[in-house]
Design a protein that fits this description.
The complex is a heterodimer of chains A (324) and B (345). Chain A is built from eight helices and 19 strands. Chain A has 324 residues and is an alpha+beta fold. Among the domains of chain A are: 71 residues, Beta Barrel (Thrombin, subunit H), CATH 2.40.10.10; 87 residues, PDZ domain (Pdz3 Domain). The longest helix of chain A is centred in the first third of the chain and has 24 residues. Chain A is globular. The termini of chain A are far apart. In chain A, 44% of the residues are buried. Chain B has two domains: 181 residues, Thrombin, subunit H (Beta Barrel), CATH 2.40.10.120; 87 residues, Pdz3 Domain. Chain B contains nine helices and 21 strands. Chain B has a seven-stranded antiparallel β-sheet. The longest helix of chain B has 24 residues. Classes of the chains: A alpha+beta (324), B alpha+beta (345).
Chain lengths: 324, 345
């Protein structure tokens, strides 16, 4: 009787040992929480190592009626920033690097849904730049640090760095406790590999309420943003309308609800249907779906490939308008 | 013996792997408060430095309301704090709730620091250990006790250590154009609750002279006013409904007066009144309200590297570095030499 009991314990014991050795190999910033001062010191050392590299790509943007921030992500000077910093496409703006160098840039596209925006430096470069990680590489709990120009460019003050962790990542928004202030808008949030994982967007009153555009918004809509299109809420109102609320998943966009009287309901879509492709293009990002649908006119016909339970099907439907 | 060992291993397994399992399940939810930058678990990683910090800080009270924190600097119960925040402080409360009456010893106006003593029969108070030298590098961990002295707040240093220039006093008015024709400078707007408002100035009043000096241009008014300090009084001669009138205005602080017009300050919540005119400051990003000023700032080793002296905005707090404070204390508190040298191996 006691023998099998002991054997079970032994099995647990060994798996426990394996689990433990994995913990030892972890970097301090990969742990669920820093456990002691050594962990904190390792996080600090890593941060201090990443700042000199990442800060070179930070820019301050003299926008319409204020100042914002941005980050260069290619040697030819493509800048990621916020939609509310660029305002609209085709506007000339002056950007300033941390070393004081000034140059001219022109605003490209973006989206008011996520608040993503892009600019292009006019001079060919090469410019100092930072890298973008693989799609969906950041997750809740990851350590991060934000750079930017809170309150505007200030050469005497120098660089302002704020450390924090990802608190929430949902749809078109990332929340962290890396604190922001006006002027930071458009500035970069980095992971502990020195890659850009988000762009600063907005805040609420509590210190933990700092909101950023996840890099995925740029990655999923790169071509659209770069080809000088800015999706505004006005575009969304005037463009085609499908009539579904959906959520992102690994399989595709899962329909959460179908609005009565809309094109989607008329076509027979149901809750939990998964949208796979529209006009033969794979769409897994909510913002991309809105950009795609708003780019069409009411009455335009689209082809949707979707999955219901275990079977897939394709149907054609005519888009409606938001005011029907 | 053998069985015991296995039993411990099992316990280990349960305590180590259960949280890991929960973590996987909560991936799509938000990060629990305890694990955030200022969460209780992150605070605990600072180890004994955290509890020592809480023991060497006091809450300064006026009419049972917290007005500032104070930093215990020696065993005799001497504390330093932000002078402009603690006017009228009579009592200090410790981490364990114990209270002591306070006596002011000295004010160092230039650096906005005040020296108090706790009145007590108690032989020895806990006090901070000072760090030696200005050696804090950018992006280093720092922490300070939080208001209730039960928790700390965590952040990093950032920005260059630097001098903060003086900001003059303000009346809180928007001035119209230079007034050669109508014989005075017109007030276009009065900021509600600001110095001018309290003194009874109204929009459309014409300013004729300031402190007896006739003014013809807007810049003359600005020059005289900004050469004074917040708290100073000026005398205005004004013309209202064709009648001359004299008014006395006690000047306010620039940062507080124009708060209404500054979106960044609105989003920041209340900031310190005096956040200017410091010979040297360290900047950090601890989320402390303005009542949290006057307390100590510690590094990862748990050594005191400065005193929080001004809440500037949502992302910036200024601290006076230890090396800036020490000469003042040495002059006025010879016995402090003993405590100041504490921490040197």
């Amino acid at each position: 009787m006691p023998l099998p009991f002991q054997r079970i314990l032994l099995t647990f014991f060994f798996s426990g040992v394996i689990g433990f050795s994995e913990v030892v190999d972890q970097q301090a910033w990969e742990k669920k929480v820093p456990e002691n001062r050594a962990d904190l010191a390792a996080i600090q050392a890593r941060l201090q190592e990443l700042i000199p590299v990442t800060q070179k790509a930070l820019v301050s943007i003299e926008a319409n009626d204020g100042a914002g921030s941005g980050v260069i992500v290619s040697p030819d000077g493509l800048i990621l920033s916020a939609a509310h910093v660029i305002g609209r496409t085709g506007v000339n703006m002056e950007v300033r690097l941390l070393d004081g160098r000034r140059t001219n840039a022109v605003s490209l596209g973006g989206s008011e849904i996520s608040d993503a925006g892009m600019l292009q430096i006019k001079e060919p470069g090469p410019w100092p730049y930072v890298k973008i990680p693989k799609l969906h590489s950041s997750k809740v709990g990851d350590w991060c640090f934000g750079l930017g120009h809170p309150g505007g460019f200030d050469i005497e003050r120098g660089l302002v760095v704020r450390i924090g962790r990802i608190i929430e990542k949902k749809d078109e928004t990332m929340q962290t406790d890396s604190r922001l202030l006006g002027g930071d808008s458009g500035g970069p949030l980095f992971n502990f590999e020195g890659k850009v994982i988000a762009i600063h967007s907005r805040i609420s009153n509590e210190p933990d309420q700092n909101f950023h555009v996840p890099i995925e918004s740029f990655q999923e809509n790169w071509e659209f943003f770069r080809e000088q299109d800015l999706l505004t809420f006005e575009n969304i109102e005037q463009g085609g309308f499908l009539g579904i609320a959906c959520e992102e998943s690994d399989q595709g966009l899962v329909i959460q609800s179908v609005i009565p009287g809309t094109a989607a309901e008329k076509a027979g879509f149901q809750e939990n249907d998964i949208i796979l492709k529209i006009d033969d293009e794979v769409i897994r990002n909510r913002e991309k779906l809105t950009i795609f649908i708003s780019g069409k006119e009411p009455e335009d016909e689209i082809k949707i490939e979707y999955q219901r339970q275990m079977s897939t099907a394709t149907l054609k439907l005519k888009l409606g308008s938001r005011f029907e | 013996m053998h069985f015991n060992l296995i039993h411990i291993a099992l316990l280990f397994f349960v305590t180590w792997n259960t949280p890991a399992f929960c973590e996987d399940q909560s991936q799509t939810n938000s990060l629990e408060p305890a694990f955030r930058l200022n969460g209780i678990k992150t605070q605990d990683a600072f180890g004994p430095g955290k509890s020592k910090a809480l023991l060497s800080t006091v809450r300064l009270m006026r009419n049972n309301k917290l007005i500032a924190l104070g930093t215990l600097i020696n065993a005799d119960g001497y504390i330093i704090t932000k002078a402009s925040s603690c006017v009228g402080a009579r009592e200090a409360t410790m981490h364990n709730g114990e209270s002591f009456p306070l006596k002011i010893r000295k004010r160092f106006e230039e650096i906005d620091l005040a020296l108090y003593q706790l009145i007590s029969q108690q032989v020895e108070f806990d006090c901070v250990e000072w760090e030696e030298g200005n050696q804090t590098s950018p992006a280093s961990w720092v922490f300070s006790p939080y208001l209730g002295l039960q928790e700390i707040r965590i952040g990093i240093t950032s920005g260059n250590p630097r001098t903060i220039g003086r900001e003059g006093g303000v009346m809180g008015v928007m001035l119209g154009r230079d007034g050669k024709e109508n014989g005075g400078i017109e007030i276009n707007e009065v900021v509600p609750q600001a110095a001018a408002d309290r003194a009874g100035l109204l929009a459309q009043d014409l300013i004729l002279s300031v402190d007896g000096r006739r003014v013809l241009r807007k810049n003359q008014v600005i020059q005289i006013v900004s050469s004074k300090d917040p708290g100073d009084m000026i005398t205005l001669e004004i013309l209202r409904n064709n009648k001359k009138k004299q008014l006395k205005v006690t000047l306010g602080h620039n940062s507080v007066t124009f708060e209404l017009f500054n979106r960044n300050l609105q989003m920041s919540g209340p900031v310190s009144k005096r956040k200017d005119n410091f010979p040297l400051i360290l900047q950090h990003d601890l989320p402390l309200p303005k009542e949290g000023m006057g307390g100590p700032l510690f590094n990862l080793k748990g050594k005191c590297i400065g005193i929080n002296i001004a809440r500037v905005d949502r992302v910036s707090t200024f601290a006076l570095p230890a090396e800036t404070i020490k000469p003042y204390l040495k002059k006025w508190l010879p016995t402090l030499d003993k405590t100041l040298s504490k921490g040197i191996p």
